[in-house]
Amino acid sequence: MDIHRGTQVIGVWGAMVSESHGFIASIETSRGMAGTAVRIQWDNGSSHHAMISEIQDNYLDNNQVGLYVNPFTEELM
Fold this sequence. Notes:
Elements: E1 8-12, E2 19-29, E3 36-42, E4 47-51, E5 55-56, E6 66-69
Parallel strand pairs: 5-6
Antiparallel strand pairs: 1-2, 1-6, 2-3, 3-4
């Protein structure tokens, strides 16, 4: 899975706010971290920090809460 700045992301949150759409705004790798961190900029203007390992690529096959790479060819934002 190729995740880079600008990669579109879908956040699936559950019942109250079912989905958010955003993109990877920054990527940070540090020796002290347990992996690579990303900052996701959501379409409502908020930011979310997560580890790159939390982002999955099976949005169409999975029905669970989580962060997913946008599998659609058209932009969501």
